[in-house]
Fold each of these.
Amino acid sequence: MTVVRNQVANSGVIVGGPFEFDVDGEADMVSGITLDDTNAFGSGSTWIVTDDQGNILGLPPTLTALEGVDFDGAGAGVCLIWYARYEGTISGLEMGMNANDVSGDFDLSNAITVVRNQVVNAGTISGGPFEFDVDGEADMVSGITLDDTNAFGDNSTWIITDDQGNILGLPPTLAMVEGVDFDGAGAGTCLIWYARYNGSVTGLEMGMNANNVTGDFDLSNPITVVRNQVVNAGTISGGPFEFDVDGTPDMVSGITLDDANAFGDNSTWIITDDLGNILGLPPTLAMVEGVDFDGAGAGTCLIWYVRYNGSVTGLEMGMNANNVTGDFDLSNPITVVRNQVVNAGTISGGPFEFDVDGTPDMVSGITLDGTNAFGDNSTWIITDDQGNILGLPPTLAMVEGVDFDAAGPGVCLIWYARYNGMVTGLEMGMNANDVTGMFDLSNSITVTRNCNTSPGVLSGGPFTFTVDGTPDMVSGIMLDSSNAAGPNSTWIITDDQGKILGLPPTLAMVEGVDFNAAGAGVCFIWYLRYEDGVEGLAMDMNANDLKGCFSLSNAIQVTRQ
């Protein structure tokens, strides 16, 4: 009897595992698998990877190829690793088929299980690192991207921490992360993270530490944001200021310093011209506000505040603020404009006081301080005390050549004027107060012209006559001239309205006048002492209109009935 013993395919036994991995985007490979092929038979062989239903996911031909498979890429689930031997032609041994349905002379080994657990995964963020200067200017990150290919978790948030993990912010979206102003956090280092989590977690809140969050939670890699503390002068406010250069001190006021973001061991204030040339370095704001900008003349100044560390070069008078080197920062500037305006300067001398006595009286010793004077044109002006222009001598020499005695008693004012272009009203007979245009008057010097005449006192009368054709003469009039003064004299007879009816030069001639001839009415007899140049002293003029240096006595009335 013949006994035939057929050799059938036998895959042997595989050892290793089981394996368990987290699906987290990190490659997961099996290792340490061995094959006991002592009883294995079959001219064909392969390794097979299936899911837990036997569906063929891969057919790595060698153990080496098997151990190169990344199981993380398959996602969550269960894989089975098998070894197969077969003889001849078999069907169904291909990707997408089921290992349970392979037909032919074929044998599968035992299986090794590979469990792939789906865990919370925050994915990967990219962008940065970022580096900003803390200088009061807003600093936002941009260009951050999230690779969430392998991310998993029902909930998500972004987290901003310090470099110790302390939670500073929890912006829910990337847009809100990119809206955070990191300058406001001051100097230091921040970390930006993305987090995914399931269910409830503990410690995911402001003021807690991200390293201590508990629960089904995962943090991405961080992106670093470095915030460098740099010298910062802060911000100054006030002005701008505008002054007229006119010899009157001009000081700024109301300047304030916002030093909320200021940083630097040392500080000073700086005043420059509009090109940055350093004109002054007042150490305090009080000293800035004590500077007289009028003294700098016309132009533009800039006021700055500066903070600096250590030694800086070029921070000194006469240098340029734009060329200062070192750890140094300038604030914004405040502008001070100094306008050059017409300015007559200041005149000194006098006051002068003269007696109107027929002797020429001239001023002398007048000086002009033109240090701050400005204007293309100039003249001297002489006015009365109401501002009416009496003369326009073009030079000081001509002012000192004016004979003020000739003007008669009164008060004159001497002025100096500077002006640009055309002015209106600067002419004889006009009033200096009404001059219009780009024009300035100096202070005035007073010239007082005193009239030192005195007529004495008359006594006698009054007289009353009857108009009857008989001559009527006054008599017994007396003149007390003990205090009389004045080089010239005359007697005056007027009517009761002041009209001059006669100018008898002597008392004897007064007493020779026949008042009867004048008809009925009232006459007045006066005595007059005067200086040369009196106007209006003539027959038929009115004594009330006399002009010049003169004095009238009391009157004696003569009534003609």
Amino acid sequence: PTNHLDLSSCVWLEDHLRGYDKILVITSHSQDFLNGVCSNIMVLQRSKLKYWAGNYEQYVKTRTEQETNQMKLYAKQQEEIKHAKEFIASCGTFANLVRQAKSRQKMLDKMEEAGLIEPVHQEKKLVLKFPECGRLVPPLIALNDVAFSYSGKKKDYLYKGLNIGVDSDSRIALLGPNGAGKSTLVKLMCAELMPTEGTVQRRPGLKIGRFSQHSNDQLEPELSPVEYIQKQFPGMFKDVQDWRTAIGRFGLTGTQQMDKISKLSEGLKSRLVFTELALRGPNVLMLDEPTNHLDMECIDSLADAINSFQGGLVLVSHDFRLIEQVAKTIWVCDQGITEWKGSIRDYKDMLRKKMAEQTKGGIDSGTC
């Protein structure tokens, strides 16, 4: 439910649903949202549902503890089985040991009848990685006295007098309500839009890795992922297996690589977009709502990839946890740009207090 909401709407919905007094079932990739709303977690794994009490954070803690204990018990039982089998094998036909061997065998039979402890099934961890990039002389992107409106008229300016820049060590999150101009600012930085006033300078040789809210729609649905990447980067690899390996690094494996893109889920399409983005070898990542179709595992892997990336980052996201993981600087877009000096948690608390004040004043906080 949070996919296309801004941060203030996410906070409002979280608070509203927390007080909802009827049955509520949520499918979500937002750990922060699940922590704030849910009292129980259902996990679908290997075609089975398992139930856990508590919110998402409590579920992770409890599951980790249980799986650790299960592996200890599994290791202990396997050691007992090993010793019992070794003893039985060593007894041979010695009369004085045959009775003991039979006793050990009965013990093994009872253990099997009762059901042996199974090892914890570990899902293969998805590891995303952006390639190393050369560090260019800063600033990589500089906005000088920039003003912009879609109409070109001063009275409609979303921004005016902007003097900001992006460097290789920038880790910037853009916050603000829907319609405040977050995506517009990214488009100005990427030269998808031209400023009404002022200039936008980009370092010669700069490569921008762009993920937009509509990137999935720009893929060619009748091609397979392998065919699509081959078309985007002709001659990069000679052997088909090399193409498949490159795509596999972003979690597209097996038949997914050869099926038509139209048959892929939105999450897999997003992984294909990230494959294309990485192969371009960017110096700066411009990510506009990259998590909309990613699952939790992929979001965490994306955060790890961003943190190990050597270039700059400009991020637009409604995912509080991702922002907390990767952003060093927070810019609030709302009739201009101001730097938020606190943490993303402080910002969330501010939104919550602001909506509480509006509610007391008789304003519908759902319109924030």
Amino acid sequence: MKSLTFSKCLLSGLILVGSLLTSQAQAAIVINGTRVIYPSDQKEISVKLDNNGEAPLLVQSWIDEGDAHSTPDNSKAPFVLTPPIARIDKHEGQTLRVRFTGQKSLPQDKESIFWLNVLEVPPSTDDGQNKLKIAFRSRVKFFYRPTALKLDTLQVAQQMQWRLIKNTGSWVLEGTNPTPYYLNLSAVKVGRANIELDLTNSMFGPGEHKTFPIKGAMDLADTKQIDFSAINDYGGIQTVTQALTP
């Protein structure tokens, strides 16, 4: 693997596939982990990338503040990655070093969320022919976690507050995250009703309140508990059964 020192963004002149979220089943470059945690007391952390493909690839990495259309040139996230651009040979790996720059003050009483972007591009050939190159981009959540926060995912999930209300004849589930952590849900079930989750409603920020309409005509008046699953720091699933708030 060879580090490169290009200053130009590799996005130029490419067709970008998966600008919002590229499935790592499609991409040859695999990020080790489904999320990255940066403890605030660490000078730097490492993120491992592996090229599971059959060809060498150029890889550009950067962190953004939540804008899926960001580029390395316009991102203002207070983190620097080394190397920002690298060539990774087939079946080889590359370690990214991530360092908090301190250029922006981040809260020390709650988590902050960013996104790690990894863009992979097939290298140019030397045959002089014009060829279409397709770039794949993967994005994973990147959490800055102050050292004062000591709870694990299960403990955070157990503090969630849930309430069922009836609104104009239909049921609505209300959820509140009273903790200073982000909590990512993978499944929610109330009685016989499975709540539909997507990228916009499956994550609760610190102190965030969300409502989930429950589709279908059913009587939930006697429902006393909720079953839900949350994703932990390692990508595993934590399942919780919890009493509903009256």
Amino acid sequence: MKIVFSDAAKERVERDLEPNKALVLDFDDGVGPFSDEATCTLDVAFNLIVVDPEKISKDFDETVPSNLGQVYVKGYAINQLDENASIDLDKYLRFQLKGDSGMIDPNMSLQTR
């Protein structure tokens, strides 16, 4: 499995991703320090989070390689992703998570914590 950031998405994330920071792809299910609440929905929701490595909880027990380095994920959430995942920016500058099967999340946020 891998994640490829488009040039536009990579450029935007790199503004916040300092050398001493880590990148998290958070499956927003209410588990972990980055989910404020979980809602009952049929939609899959992810958030990109730039964070100090010491703030990453044990919930993020896997990493996925990307063209921005290792991305921390919840191991059980990997089944929500396709083998070849990509992250792009749309014309409204919203992050979109896509895979071999199509759109996974059309409206991801980028947060710094």
